Amino acid sequence: MRTRLLIVDDSALMRRLLSGIFSPEEGFEVAIARDGAEALEKLHSFAPDVITLDVNMPRLDGIACLDRIMVERPCPVVMVSGRTAAGAAETMTALELGAVDFVLKPAGAVSLEIDELRPLLLKKVRTAAAAKVKASTRLTDRVRVTTGRSAPERAIPASGAGSGRLPPLVEAHADGLVLVGTSTGGPRALELLLTPLAADFPWPILVAQHMPAFFTGALAARLDKVCALQVVEVSSPTTLVPGTAYVARGEADMVVRRRGETLVASAAPADPGYPWHPSADRLVRSALAAVSADRLVGVLMTGMGNDGAAAMAEIKRGGGRTIAEAEESAVVWGMPGELVKMDGASVVAPVEQIASLLIEALA
After folding, report:
1. pLDDT for 52 beyond 80
2. Taking the domains of the chain in order of start, what are their residue ranges?
């Protein structure tokens, strides 16, 4: 079965280079669009399975185009982002609107650097093509566009996987940690996880989100604006305190160490022994060396690969608690699925229920 890929970019060079990557690959059928307006036309005539979407374009830019795509005909989208502060902020907006992932445009000579990006582009687009775009996303807007009426508010029933509870933790004081690992689809999942938590949440929360360094600061800043918790990026040794979520700096690893009675997180150079960065596995293993397993809660959410699964399984074996995001809500059920396969999950739950599980366990 062929994957229909729509490449949207106002640069003729980028269209040619991207088409040159995917057209020779077995299993791809490629179409191109020169801007967002043309992309919306081909959204229906070509019916793509996945889209690569430039951010800055004339007539209709990538953000406005993505907004329309997710209303008119939702499908997986990979944003092609520039290396600017504005580009980072726009990428965070795109991920919130429903984009599955993003790639950075080459910083120098595009035609020379595109070959270096080839494996990453192929991997991300193939992963996105297989990702799930939830049917409930932008449902009210979609019904209004197609029928002129609003969709009725309704609850989405949870599967039996989310019906369990996390066993309560005794004496939930500040010496425990919540450790979160996520990748593809993670920014939206993190928002759903963190926004229900109160400013006095009793344990620090440490987040390893696979993302380049240029974007983790923007991610932390965006989450800080929408959460009662304080959300910060860790770029230097930082004392861990309750009521705060700590986002690992991209292209590095976050590690936890104990200094007397104090727990400190710091950014360490990426360890080549771990394939993904920031590494959830390395974060969890460093926490296990500083805190007993029964003082840890591991949360593994949407993402490709298996980062964090083996280390979080150790938390459960040591008497701690672990939560795996359920397949029904994960954009990509790779990382949490591996934790479930290892029998390392105390509870499996849709992402919308994870915050309440944490609150109950630490009440």
Report:
1. yes
2. 3-134, 164-361
Q: Average model confidence (pLDDT) for the chain?
A: 89
Choice among 81, 210, 279, 281 that is catalytic: 210
- Rounded CA separation 43/118 (Å): 25
Question: Tokens 């993505």 — which residue?
Answer: 66
CA 101 – CA 123 distance, rounded (Å): 11
307 is catalytic: yes
Torsion of CA 123, 266, 274, 174, to 10 degrees: -100
Options 3.55.40.20, 3.30.230.70, 3.10.20.30, 3.40.50.180; CATH for 164-361 is: 3.40.50.180
Secondary structure (3-state) at 153 = coil
With 0-12 / 13-18 / 19 or more C-beta atoms within 10 angstroms meaning exposed / middle / buried, residue 356 is middle
- Tell me if the pTM is above 0.70: yes
Note the pLDDT of residue 133.
87
CATH topology for 3-134?
Rossmann fold (3.40.50)
210 catalytically annotated: yes
CB count within 10 Å of CB 259 equals 10
Residue among 279, 307, 329, 346 flagged as catalytic: 307
Exactly one of 183, 279, 329, 346 is catalytic; which is it?
Answer: 183
| Region 266-284 average pLDDT | 97
DSSP state of 183: -
Q: Which residues, including other chains, have CB under 8 Å from residue 2's CB and lie 6 or more apart? A: 27, 28, 29
